[in-house]
Specification:
Blueprint lengths: L17 H19 L5 E8 L5 E6 L1 H7 L6 H8 E8 L8 E6 H6 L1 H11 L1 E8 L6 E11 L4 E10 L1 H59 L7 H27 L7 E3 L1 H11 L1 H6 L3 E6 L6 E3 L1 H18 L5 E9 L2 E8 L27 H11 L3 E6 L5 E8 L2 E2 L2 E2 L2
Parallel strand pairs: 9-11
Antiparallel strand pairs: 1-2, 1-7, 3-4, 3-5, 5-6, 6-7, 8-10, 11-12, 12-14, 13-14, 15-16
Length: 416
């Protein structure tokens, strides 16, 4: 049998059956005739041994070779080296959603044999390859597969189409959809927040009026009863609880209200020293010693000082309440990559494991008195500044609050 000119394959050079050789020859003739029409598809006929990983081309069109810029006997290896990923698309019957599976080039090489076996069972294959080619980023591969069991040979007859424009448009639509979904989520969150704020305002107004009336009546009753009597003590309890309700309402309003950051440059040490100064009475009354450790080259923060002070106040106060009398609270200021890290460590009783996941939940508290909004408010403020608040807690070795605040850029550049 006459071997076609420029033949890159192996079947004509091997000891394969005459039927297979004749089939390959006729297929090459048909592919060459189709190639002469000058149509868009890039044609090929690939082959491989069933039990081997190596694939080669029995036929590869001239336009395909020009695209690969290599001889025909190197085309298969060259094509594989240029593939960045493979994408397949599928959908369930009656389902409008299309599932995209992206297989990166390293996984393609690792699972080549298994992927090929899966295609053989299907008898056909459609995939889109992202290519590392100038001007041709995407190629759609459509192929029909044949098995010749007596020869242990598999054949793949395929054509490749340049679908770069279509895929770029698809990716652009995907990016725009992602933006739309993000904006939709933001809008829903804003609407939910506004609804919560309105509800909180109305609720607080309705509750605050009866509390104010209750407090006023208690004060009048105080003047009508003898001091140091049971009635006087009962009235003191009622008055105390009314004040506590007022504080809970104030905390609820503060937590639900929309906050607007008024940023200014603040030195970290000044910020933390101010917080400790505000809590000086609490610290001294319990005999707690505050220790401040800092570095010399700390970034200046560009933050809302009032809100951040309030957040740190809640965190330090939480540590004070967890400590026995005479303990210590340690505060660390550290510069890390692109951020300032504040660590506030107490040496109290720690947090039980079953409670740790709920620490930042609004209204969650283990105290007899307290609204359970302090750490929730602190977390909200820190997140508004693009930072994070986390707790590392043991049951016996105390708790450490870790705050990461990013360095911010101003019109003058990075503040340090």
């Amino acid at each position: 049998m006459l071997i076609p000119e420029g033949y890159p394959g192996r079947i004509f050079r091997g000891t394969y059956s005459p039927a297979l050789r004749q089939h390959v020859l006729r297929s090459i003739e048909r592919l060459e005739n189709f190639e002469r029409l000058g149509l868009a598809p890039l044609l090929y006929m690939a082959a491989w041994q069933e039990q081997e990983k190596v694939i080669w081309y029995e036929f590869v069109g001239q336009r395909f070779l020009r695209l690969l810029d290599c001889p025909a006997d190197q085309a298969a290896a060259r094509f594989r080296s240029l593939v960045l990923d493979q994408r397949t698309y599928s959908s369930q019957e009656g389902d409008l959603d299309v599932h995209e599976e992206i297989i990166p080039s390293d996984r393609l090489r690792e699972d080549e044999h298994n992927l090929r076996q899966h295609r053989l069972q299907a008898g056909r294959m459609e995939a889109i390859y992202k290519m590392n080619l100038a001007g041709t980023s995407w190629l759609k591969d459509s192929s029909i597969l044949e098995i010749w069991p007596a020869d242990g040979i598999c054949l793949s007859f395929g054509c490749l189409l340049d679908v770069s424009k279509e895929m770029e448009q698809k990716d652009q639509i995907h990016r725009e959809n992602m933006v739309v979904q993000r904006d939709k989520s933001i809008l829903v969150a804003v609407e939910r927040t506004n609804a919560l704020n309105n509800m909180a305002t109305r609720l607080c107004h309705e509750i605050r009026n009866p509390i104010a009336s209750l407090g006023g009546l208690v004060k009048r009753l105080h003047t009508m009863c003898e001091p140091e009597t049971k009635m006087a003590r009962y009235l003191e309890v009622i008055e105390h609880e009314a004040v506590r309700l007022e504080k809970i309402l104030a905390g609820f309003v503060a937590y639900t209200r929309s906050l607007e950051l008024r940023r200014e440059a603040v030195e970290p040490r000044t910020l933390l020293s101010s917080v400790l100064c505000l809590l000086k009475t609490d610290l001294e009354s319990q005999g707690i010693e505050p220790l401040l450790h800092d570095q010399t080259d700390l970034p200046v923060l560009f933050i809302d000082r009032e809100l951040m002070e309030e957040a740190l106040l809640h965190i330090v106060k939480n540590g004070i309440e967890a400590l026995p009398a005479g303990g210590t609270i340690e505060c660390f200021l550290e510069s890390t990559e692109g951020a300032l890290r504040i660590r506030i460590r107490d040496h109290g009783g720690g947090i039980q494991e079953n409670l740790r996941a709920r620490i930042f939940e609004p209204f969650f508290t283990t105290k007899i008195y307290g609204a359970g909004l302090g750490l929730s408010m602190a977390d909200k403020v820190i997140r508004m500044h693009g930072g994070t608040l986390s707790l590392q807690a043991g049951q016996e070795r105390g708790t450490e609050a870790i705050i990461l605040l990013p360095e911010q850029e101003t019109s003058g550049g990075l503040i340090r």
